[in-house]
Design goal:
The structure is a single chain. By secondary structure, the protein is mainly beta. The chain has one domain (10-23, 30-59, 81-300): Thrombin, subunit H (Beta Barrel), CATH 2.40.10.120. It has helices at 82-90, 123-126, 282-296, and strands at 15-16, 39-42, 45-48, 94-101, 104-112, 118-121, 131-135, 141-150, 155-160, 170-171, 181-186, 194-211, 228-237, 249-251, 256-266, 277-281. The strands form two sheets. It has a six-stranded antiparallel β-barrel. The protein has a six-stranded antiparallel β-barrel with strand order 4-5-6-9-8-7.
Length: 300
């Protein structure tokens, strides 16, 4: 049997994921329409101004109502598993970002870049925002302002107002290899303080992220024209990341930032994680952030 005897692979394309609506307590879920074919979506979440604010776990052929309470942090076993220690160390450096645009409200994630409240996130998390709030791991919520954005690299900086003494994330200076254990932090489906584990699946991916043209577009737009961007040098991971993880941290087992969670692949039948996620390398994010701060100049 030669290769001509095998059926061709299913067609696929790469799309961006809309920001997640905030999760209300005891909300009644509603299924989200999903385009057919394999998709690559960015990880922020949106809801239209006239749309339902309910969040559905609609990644199977059924939906489930969810009641969300604040996350609690346990002390773990006396052995203090290594990953639990990493989670405890990194969690204070990860925030939830809530935005309001002309189209509604969205939720994404971010990491503390400076102790004075400068937060690093994805550009698509804050693009078009009329107002931004940042919620720290402690639960404190403050208003924030955009410092600078880079749509090409999908990186943005915002400044949380009136904060100081924050714990900045530690950027990794070590090399990353396929097979390395990683942890993904953020607010998937608006669930702040979430963390998942996986490995680095591959390095140096070049993927094209486009608008799925669903009613809620990837950047908060509703019914807009198809758009796309190219993500170069991306880290591929099988750590579970979902809408709302955009801008969150991908860290190694030393708790050092190796990437900014940005996009996932999904199929027509499953719009959540299928174990194929992509992160912007921390080196790229740090370089862009440094430039954005320089461009902001005296305003910082």
């Amino acid at each position: 049997m030669d290769m001509s005897d095998y059926p061709p692979p299913a067609p696929h394309s790469i799309y961006a994921f809309p920001p997640v609506p905030p999760v209300p307590p005891a909300a009644r879920p509603r299924r989200r329409a999903v385009a057919t074919g394999a998709l690559l979506t960015s990880l922020a979440l949106t809801v239209g101004a006239a749309g339902s604010a309910a969040t559905a776990l609609a990644y199977e052929h059924r939906t489930k109502a969810v009641v969300v309470t604040a996350a609690t942090v346990g002390t773990g076993s006396p052995a203090a598993e290594p990953l639990a220690r990493v989670v405890a160390a990194v969690r204070p450096s990860v925030v939830t970002i809530t935005t309001r645009t002309a189209d509604g409200e969205g939720v994404g994630s971010g990491v503390v870049y400076r102790s004075d409240g400068v937060i690093l996130t994805n550009n698509h998390v804050v693009e078009g925002a009329q107002s931004i709030t940042v919620t720290m791991s402690s639960g404190r919520t403050v208003a924030a302002d955009v410092v600078g954005t880079d749509a090409t690299n999908d990186i943005a900086l915002v400044k949380a107002r009136g904060l100081s003494g924050l714990t900045p994330v530690t950027f990794s200076s070590a090399s990353v290899a396929a097979g390395d254990t990683v942890l993904a932090f953020g607010s998937p489906l608006g669930l702040a303080g979430s963390v998942s584990a996986g490995i680095v699946s591959a390095l140096g991916r070049t993927v094209t992220i486009g608008d799925s043209q669903t009613p809620n577009g990837p950047y908060g737009g509703i019914g807009g024209a198809s758009t796309s961007e190219v993500l170069r040098g991306a880290i591929q991971t099988d750590a579970t990341i979902n809408p709302g993880n955009s801008g969150g941290a991908l860290v190694d087992t030393a708790g050092r930032l190796i990437g900014i969670n940005t996009a996932i692949a999904s199929t027509g039948s499953q719009s959540g994680s299928i174990g194929v996620g992509f992160a912007i390398p921390a080196t790229t994010a740090a370089s862009v952030a440094k430039r954005l701060l320089l461009e902001a100049g005296n305003s910082m």
